[in-house]
Design goal:
The complex is a heterodimer.
Chain A: H1 6-34, H2 57-65, H3 68-99, H4 105-117, H5 124-133, H6 140-144, H7 151-162, H8 166-174, H9 179-190, H10 192-208, H11 211-216, H12 225-235, H13 240-273
Helix pairs in contact in A: 1-13, 2-13, 3-7, 3-10, 3-12, 4-7, 8-9, 10-13, 12-13
Chain B: H1 2-43, H2 60-67, H3 69-99, H4 107-119, H5 122-132, H6 138-145, H7 157-184, H8 189-197, H9 202-213, H10 215-230, H11 234-240, H12 253-261, H13 268-296
Helix pairs in contact in B: 1-13, 2-13, 3-7, 3-10, 3-12, 4-7, 5-11, 7-10, 7-11, 8-9, 10-13, 12-13
The chains are: A mainly alpha, B mainly alpha.
Chain lengths: 276, 299
């Protein structure tokens, strides 16, 4: 093993700290802005990184001009629904594709692969007209439905189930377990890791989504956080403190979630990237 | 004997249940991806509007595109986005992965921290950047403190677009870094050490050891990021505003789809034709990147 010299080590840490400042710095700057009171100048040069008299006024202030907590609740509803539908739908479909033999299996698999190849942005107008035909426009249901069971998640679950050894299930077949029992008692417990990845990315995807809710929601009381923030930014751009408070409200839950479940986030990148 | 008696029952069971398993997934994917895709293809050749069904107009929508100045602008910006963003996205995260590759104290913290922008919503990070790049924001605060004159990042058509590109690259750094870390884990460190012993410098080692070892991952990152870059919407929409910056000059293709196709009098037919262009170019980009991979593959 080559020994790293002292200055090489120092240089490495110096670079790490520089990148840290670039990646996390903007979030801290936003947090700092959100804590600065109306009497404090936020335009100083050199910029003041620490608020002089930290205050939470902006957080109540932003709630006075837009219903930011309602937006957060809407986002939460959408995200939780997206997690449930994706976990259930993708696990079931993935199990059938990987473990059951039936006529039409290849065609069913192909449908999901084809769906994966269609970029969401190229069908978003047709999705919008579809929702209008179903009279679901401007509802949170319409926000959830198109991604309720994503093709990528189905294929991820299929791969997870396909990697399990057959012997365990054969024993259950001999014991007379039917296919639902095998799915619930043997299949699902063995793919918990992938299921967690699907759940986390479904939550993050729904919480962070912007283009689709922007198109399908028109009443401001139905807005999710991202659409609400866009509205806040468009209307109150001249008050950076309030916008900053709004963005911190939107990003804090995900950062906490990431801090707790880091392992699955990184695993999801690996599995999701090798799609198709 | 026993097997014979249970066989018919289990066969009917088998025939029905796989489709029950598939039902939720297939229904969603068919109704909200495959059917809308077919609708898009069909409507691209009609003059459908939001509230009125359309009639067949043949290639009219595509002819309209050629004379539509906003289409030219959108196509230019979206392609420019690919050209500028993809090289950065292929290279910078790789360098970052090399930086956090070795198990040194605190490296797990740095890896997690570098991933933070990926977790945050694109709306959140765009608003943070909009405030940082504001005429009187953080960046200009630092510039004036250093004696430089402030720059109107969000007032100029090109500066605005480049700012959005920088934002896209910045937001993707951590994501692609993790992909590269997984690939680098398969590169034996002995290769590096042998090269170092042979007296190869850092740049030489990077080019002759690291790059060949992770080349297929670089292609994968190139494919993923070029498709994503071409479809850019949120960053530019939020920094430039719904109308696409000064005189609409920062409109991207997907922004144009959104603007044309929505609203009470949305030109759904024309927006569908534009959507088909997005779809076609996305496919072409994918194929180009994957072909580049195959051609360079040593036989």
């Amino acid at each position: 093993m080559r020994r790293a010299s002292g200055w090489e080590k120092a240089l490495r840490y110096l670079l790490l700290l520089a990148v840290l400042a670039l990646t996390v710095g903007p979030f801290l700057w936003q947090l700092s802005t959100s804590l600065k009171g109306t009497t404090e100048d936020i335009y100083t040069s050199p910029p003041a990184f620490l608020p002089e008299h930290p205050t939470l006024d902006n957080y109540s202030g932003v709630a006075d001009i837009v219903p930011v907590w309602d937006y957060a609740l809407n986002s939460l509803k959408v995200a939780v629904a997206n997690v449930l539908t994706n976990c259930v739908g993708a696990a079931m479909a993935g199990y059938a594709l990987a473990r059951l033999r039936f006529r039409g299996r290849k065609a069913a698999g192909l449908a999901f692969v084809m769906a994966l190849l269609v970029p969401l942005e190229s069908i978003i107008i047709a999705q919008f007209t579809t929702m209008r035909e179903l009279e679901l426009n401007n509802t949170l249901t319409a926000v959830v439905l198109p991604g309720a069971v994503s093709a990528l998640n189905v294929l991820l679950m299929r791969n997870a189930f396909a990697a399990l050894p057959y012997e365990v299930e054969e024993a259950a077949v001999i014991d007379g377990a039917n296919v639902w029992q095998r799915f619930l008692r043997i299949g699902l417990p063995s793919v918990k890791g992938t299921l967690a990845v699907v759940a986390i990315f479904a939550f993050m995807g729904a919480w962070d989504d912007f283009l689709w809710p922007l198109i399908v929601l028109s009443d401001s009381d139905k807005f999710t956080l991202t659409v609400g923030l866009n509205y806040l930014h468009g209307t109150f751009a001249n008050n950076p403190r309030l916008v900053a408070a709004g963005t911190i409200i939107a990003v804090a839950p995900l950062i906490v979630m990431f801090a707790c479940l880091q392992r699955y986030f990184f695993r999801g990148v690996g599995e999701g990237a090798i799609k198709g | 004997m026993r097997r014979h008696s249970t066989a018919p029952a289990s066969r009917t069971h088998r025939a029905a249940s796989p489709w029950l398993f598939l039902l939720p997934g297939l229904a969603v994917v068919t109704a909200f991806t495959l059917y809308p895709f077919l609708t898009t293809v069909h409507q691209a050749f009609t003059d459908t509007r939001t509230l009125t069904g359309g009639s067949w107009v043949g290639l009219e929508n595509f002819r309209t595109m050629l004379d539509d100045e906003q289409f030219t602008v959108g196509l230019r910006n979206s392609l420019l986005y690919v050209v500028m963003v993809v090289p950065c996205t292929v290279l910078l995260p790789l360098l970052l992965a090399l930086l956090v590759r070795r198990q040194i104290p605190g490296v797990t913290f740095f890896r997690a921290a570098f991933y933070t922008p990926v977790v945050a919503s694109v709306v959140v990070v765009s608003l943070i950047w909009a405030w940082m790049l504001d005429d009187r924001g953080l960046v200009n605060g630092i510039l004036t403190f250093l004696g430089a004159s402030p720059v109107a990042f969000l007032g100029d058509q090109w500066l605005l677009l480049f700012s959005a590109m920088a934002l896209t690259v910045w937001k993707g750094l951590g994501y692609y870094m993790i992909i590269y870390l997984a690939a680098l884990a398969n590169v034996p460190p002995e290769l590096h050490e042998a090269a170092a012993v042979d007296g190869a410098g850092a740049v030489r080692r990077f080019l002759s050891v690291t790059v060949p070892a992770v080349r297929s991952t670089m292609v994968l990152v190139g494919a993923l990021s070029s498709v994503a870059a071409f479809k850019v919407f949120s960053e530019v929409y939020l920094l430039a505003g719904p109308t696409g910056g000064p005189a609409g000059q920062d409109t991207t293709l997907v922004m144009l789809v959104q603007r044309v196709g929505t609203g009470l009098n949305g030109r759904v037919g024309y927006a569908s034709a534009l959507s088909l262009v997005v779809f076609a170019i996305t496919l072409v980009l994918m194929l180009l990147v994957l072909r580049a991979d195959r051609r360079e593959e040593p036989t």
